[in-house]
Amino acid sequence: MNKDIMELLPFYVNGTLEGKEKDKVEQAIIDDPSLKGELHFLERMREEVKAQEVENSPGELGLKRLQKSLEQEKLKSDPIALARSKIASEQNRTWRAIAVAACVLLMIQTVIVAPHWLQNGTLVAAGGPSAADISVTFAPDATESNIRGLLLGLNLSIVEGPSALGVYHLSTDDDIQQAVQALKSRGDLVESVQVEN
Amino acid sequence: MSEKESVELLQQVAKGDEKAFADFFRLYENRLYRFILSKLNDSFEASDILNETFLEVWRKAGTFEGRSKVSTWLFGIAYYKTMDRMRKKKPMLIDEDNFPEIVDETPDAVSCMISQDDAGHVRHCLETLKEAHRSVMQLAFFEDMAYGEIAKIVDCPENTVKTRMFHAKKAMKHCLQGRMEERS
């Protein structure tokens, strides 16, 4: 068998041979019937190579990995971005440390304060609602804007309410009695006024 | 996808288009992974090389001049990276092309004896091929590449590719004959 032809045969089988080389191989196959056996062997080999089962390629996971590598690559080539990334990373680390410290502090505080709560039964939180000076109920047809105008005019603030019975608890920095008188004078809006103890 | 479309995609990659890069990855990763794995036989390392190959594509897309097919250029990068990794792991002291001749005394009958039942033998024998032979066999029979393309990928003369393929076929015949004799 001609060695040249034998060397070309695999590429005739995979269909990449062209022109004179292809013609040469085809003529050789006609002239030498034993080449048909070689041809068959190579065809089977090609089929087997193509049929080989290979485990799955990385696919989309591989793409994610590549995109991550690309980000790192970009950072390396951009010193400013790299510096920013390092700073952001440092800041993240700092905030993480602060958050951990805050959690630890909260735990310690809970351990120390909780027993006191249990002993005292009730505790009034600091900064609770300020004490009311006056209790008042308004006429059913009094509108929100009427009430607002009256209270602003008398420098009164709602500190609680309305309750289920419609009672509002008010406070004032001015004279309470004067405020009570002013409220009572507005019978069109105010149904009842009472000074708190 | 046609060669023209692959070239256009690569040109987009050269301009820094990450979407085009993802499309390019999806287009070739399976074939490339298969090729790398056929040489390394280690899925973790093959994934590494695949990643390195595409990173190189990102860096060098602008240098692609269209003198060869995109796939030839790409497989060439993968081949170089794979060989480099293999050399680092185990220095190759043997010149792959200076191997003793296997006497081709196998009768033509071997050609006809390969049946569907012998697929396992064929697979086994493929694995026993020398790395240089297996690469050429893989590129010629799985990728259906011309010997000219293969020569560019493995960076050797065209005649060497043809000779390697010739010897790969002889080695396969030899191996198959041995296994068939064991069976009988």
Explained architecture:
The complex is a heterodimer of chains A (197) and B (184). With 197 residues, chain A is an alpha+beta fold. Chain A folds into three domains: 3-51, no CATH class; 63-119; 134-195, Alpha-Beta Plaits (2-Layer Sandwich). Chain A contains seven helices and four strands; from the N terminus they run H-H-H-H-H-E-H-E-E-H-E. The longest helix of chain A is centred in the middle third of the chain and has 42 residues, at 79-120. Mean pLDDT of chain A is 83; it is low at 124-129. With 184 residues, chain B is an all-alpha fold. Chain B has two domains: 3-89, RNA polymerase sigma factor, region 2, helix turn helix motif (Rna Polymerase Sigma Factor, Chain: A, Orthogonal Bundle), CATH 1.10.1740; 109-183, Orthogonal Bundle (Arc Repressor Mutant, subunit A), CATH 1.10.10.10. Chain B has nine helices and no strands. The radius of gyration of chain B is 18 Å and the shape is elongated. Chain B starts with a helix and ends with a helix. The model of chain B is unreliable at 98-109 (pLDDT under 50). The interface between A and B is large, with 38 and 45 residues.
Write the layout of secondary structure elements.
The complex is a heterodimer of chains A (197) and B (184).
Chain A: H1 3-13, H2 19-31, H3 35-51, H4 59-77, H5 79-120, E1 134-138, H6 144-153, E2 156-160, E3 167-172, H7 176-184, E4 190-195
Antiparallel strand pairs in A: 1-3, 1-4, 2-3
Chain B: H1 3-14, H2 18-40, H3 43-60, H4 70-89, H5 109-113, H6 119-128, H7 131-141, H8 147-154, H9 158-183
Helix pairs in contact in B: 1-2, 2-3, 2-4, 3-4, 4-8, 6-9, 7-9, 8-9
